[in-house]
Design goal:
single chain, alpha/beta, five-stranded mixed sheet, 4 helices
């Protein structure tokens, strides 16, 4: 499956990448305007996303991108779910959560094959010494408990990949095509 993963910063190659993709995953810190190059084409391909901590509300829904925050959808026989935002580091702004909220939210969230996050799980792709770009322990506990096959996230740069206990984690800054094999 060819995935267009888009997160955090506008990308001038978005239209070309969209043409190559089977599906779009958006992991936040974008706006309605960041999709202008493909807005008229979005209905042609399945699109799923979560909000980041710098997002204006409702742009996913306005664009027809299915918001999977604390929801599960099926696509090509895979369960896709998500958790938006990042650990709270300041008052105000877009979606941020406390560890207590994440524990509560994820306590009964069922396992998924593909997990869309804005911020990576704690200790996995954190930026050393940067509390703003440190992930959530509650999200990591969810990953340890449910073992998704794939995680897609953003929130920081550079784009990076990591394998953790059988879970392949992709962090993207801007947009890129990723080929994943689900069998």
């Amino acid at each position: 499956m060819r995935i267009l993963h888009y997160s955090d910063h506008n990308d001038d190659s978005l239209n070309d990448l969209f043409q190559q993709a089977d599906v779009l995953f958006s992991t936040g810190d974008l706006s309605f305007f960041d999709f202008s190059a493909i807005e008229s084409q979005l209905s042609q391909k399945p699109s799923f996303g979560v909000y980041g901590n710098h997002d204006a509300p409702e742009y996913l829904e306005r664009l027809g991108i299915q918001n999977v925050h604390l929801k599960i959808v099926e696509f090509n026989g895979l369960k896709i779910g998500g958790y938006q935002g990042c650990p709270r580091y300041k008052d105000g702004g877009g979606p941020q959560f406390t560890e207590e909220e994440a524990i509560r939210d994820l306590a009964n969230f069922p396992p998924v094959d593909i997990l869309l996050l804005h911020a990576a799980p704690r200790g996995l792709l954190d930026t050393p010494g940067d509390p703003v770009h440190t992930g959530s322990q509650a999200v990591r506990d969810y990953v340890d408990r449910t073992k998704p096959k794939f995680i897609f996230c953003g929130h920081d740069s550079p784009s990076q990949e990591l394998e953790y206990n059988g879970t392949k984690i992709y962090r993207t800054d801007k947009a890129r095509i990723l080929d994943i094999f689900t069998t």
